UniProtKB/TrEMBL annotation, chain A:
Pfam families associated with the record: BPD_transp_1
InterPro entries the UniProt entry points to: CysW_permease, MetI-like, MetI-like_sf, Sulph_transpt2
Main location: membrane
Name recorded for this polypeptide: Sulfate transport system permease protein CysW
SUPFAM superfamilies noted in UniProt: MetI-like
Species of provenance: Stagnimonas aquatica
Domain spans labelled ABC transmembrane type-1: 85-286
GO function terms (MF aspect): ABC-type sulfate transporter activity
Classification of source organism: Bacteria, Pseudomonadati, Pseudomonadota, Gammaproteobacteria, Nevskiales
Keywords assigned by UniProt, alphabetized: Cell inner membrane, Cell membrane, Membrane, Sulfate transport, Transmembrane, Transmembrane helix, Transport
Amino acid sequence: MSQPRDHSLQDPPALPPEFGTGPLVRKNSAITEPAWVRWLLIGSALGFLSLFLLLPLASVFTEALRDGWGTYVSALREPDAYSAVKLTLLAAAIAVPLNLVFGVAAAWCIAKFEFRGKQLLISLIDLPFSVSPVVAGLVYVLIFGAHGWAGGWLAEHDIKIIFAVPGIALATIFVTFPFIARELIPLMQEQGTDDEQAALTLGAGGFRTFWRVTLPNIKWGLLYGVLLCNARAFGEFGAVSVVSGHIRGQTNTLPLHIEILYNEYAFAAAFAVASLLAALALVTLALKTFLEWRYADQLAAARRH
Amino acid sequence: MNPFKPKQRRAIPGFGLTLGITLSYLSLIVLIPLAGVYFKAAGLGWDGLLHTLGSARVLASLKLTFGSALIAALFNAFFGLLVAWVFVRYQFPGKRLFDAFIDLPFALPTAVAGIALTALYAGNGWLGQYLEPLGIQVAYHPLGVVVAMTFISLPFVVRTVEPVLAEAEKELEEAAATLGAGRWITVTRVILPSVWPALLTGFALAFARAVGEYGSIIFIAGNIPMVSEITPLLIIIKLEEFDYAGATAIAAAMLTLSFLLLLLINLFQAWTRRSRNR
């Protein structure tokens, strides 16, 4: 939230006791609104948030338990659900580390050096955020699909990418591409190069400087980026849906498994699986809020609130 | 001596390595695959492109997608500004908790959001049972598209406007007040102008996200051709019919729009930075 500022306006001091209790002027009324306006605004904002955020979230858990605890547990213990969990974890386990290495490399060259075209590079890194996930899936089908450019060659060598794990991993990498980089770039830009210069002057090598000086400086920002990247990797639907082929028990991730159950009218089971992902989202939000609160000074300025 | 080597070595090592990794990874994962869409679309020629994009079903889906995204982004611009204002300026119980929940649409998988919203707004749902007797159908109706888009793009405006409002100098408001401006005049003439660039950035981000959204919408929209069928779904339908040319044509159109929006967002962001540094 907004940080206390040293030049913020203060309430006027209280009068001596002989003038009665309480301050002479209750608030600095020139720069705030009457109480009824304040509460009206707060009420509408919270009403809006409750209606659009809390109600959907609550309905996930209610619907999941509608048919009782037994249905809930059996929906999660089904072998198809189990293999969907495994595939989702696998896709995230491939996508997040790769984007992590990329994110650190990109932030290093963008934050520590000056070169032409830097602003363009930053925009291009953000590009996957504004591309529709469906288009992201489609591009890989066009390249690696049976009728794609590399399709014939892949078929000859018996390599499956589309409708298989590599395609799902690729689609996940695409949609989670910018998360870690865009956390680290502003953070490392704020930190500058003084610490690294000092380490290098004292004789540390480049890699050692990164490992012992830079990494400790950025570790909470890095964790923040990984957290968001991971949440998106677990939940991606559109891009993965295009490349997966929806083969039950083989190429279904958790979000796709929800869709199949839902389209088969197994609503309680669909919501049971959905509640797993919703719980994960809540854990992500809790960790994120904790990081913003506890390590505010070690995150990029935009995240300190 | 190598004449191409810079005379003075860069103080910090690793420029070549990290830039190399960045550019190759970016090209392999993002740029080359996206260029592939245009390459394939160019093979169709103008006639082929226009034939696909001009069909009634595609035009109806484009109208629905862009129209709904515009309404959702406008709605979020209004409420996002309100929420940002309330969270920056006022104190109230539960503030921290609500603040954490604002990012829920980023953390909650879109498929989960989709089925949850459908359950809420369906005829027997918590909200649908009150809305349908009033003649307001949300689920399986174009209005459902707007609701889903509003949900998934909700945090953008709040999160872009919040820091600007927090930095706004209260001295300016005081000055306005001492010069005789009422509170309403101060808010609309002094505070709002400084928030405009951030508001536009948030609006454009929300719009871009809403246009591309697929996961949450297909559950609630009902996907009736010509009525509640969004453009990304149409790409998937074309793919399932093995109409790769059609899918590519639509994808190329959407991608071009993404680039334009990205350009616009960058301009807005530059404007935000300039007005904040003034």
